[in-house]
Amino acid sequence: MEFQFIIVEPDFQPHIALVRLYRPKELNALNLQLMLELKQALSALDENESVRCIIITGNEQAFAAGADIKQMESRTPVDLLKIDQFETWDQIRKTKKPIIAAVSGFCLGGGCELAMTCDMIIASESAKFGQPEIKLGIMPGAGGTQRLTRAVGKALAMEMVLTGRFLSAEGAQKAGLVNKVVPDEVYLDEAVKLAGEIALMSPIAVRLAKESVLKTYECSLQEGLHFERKNFYLCFASEDQKEGMKAFVEKRKPDFKGY
Ligand code: HXC
Is the pLDDT score of 2 beyond 90? Predict the structure, then answer.
């Protein structure tokens, strides 16, 4: 897959795809084309049977320092309406396979929103999270006020969104925004380790489980429990369920095939 602003390796590791945001000079600022490419890449990886987990990363200096301010500067509301960039973000959110954000350096604005759209975040010690849009006279627009608040709670989210203050990797972990913080040299390895564990599971169960966890954001407990139950029943339609339980009984490791 050839793109201008991202590098995609579908076979980075067995069953693990890597997507690298690649505008290093601009600290991976997310311009419209980059986001479009990301949408296309994720959609293709979602279709690719051999991929079971996706990692999105940047480089050591920046995951992404936000949406491209230079591209946004002269926009009018009507421009934004016509461009309808959030359609792209919505599609990214709908990726069925699990996505891990491997974050180092700046993870700001749209960058932080992109990381939060992923399912898990592995951070390097130097990672810095923030929603500094307020300093530009705007506010988060790609889920920052919603996902950050759900992740870290109202008090901290309010502080970050209203002052633009950054949160250190350690602070982000304490607040529940990231799964794990590791030294800068190994953040990608750590993400690969996590992805590798997920890739050993039944892709069907993983897909249904991801869908069920995300449902929490959208419905009452009762509706969520109902949704979970249906997905639980659906797991039993898979060969992988038979294999998983048979392997347990036979005291061996399961070999999940994804059907
Ligand atoms: C465009 C950006 C950029 C951005 C950095 N650059 N962030 N370009 N959009 N978001 C560019 C700089 O202009 C500069 O290019 C180069 O990257 C290096 O950045 P410096 O500022 O020189 O680096 P440094 O001094 O280390 O400061 C790093 C920084 C700072 C603290 C991250 O760059 C910064 O504050 N960036 C903006 C962060 C931000 O406000 N993000 C939110 C954007 S709004 P040149 O050509 O000058 O060398 C947003 C809304 C999302 O995300 C809405 C949904 C889509």
Answer: no
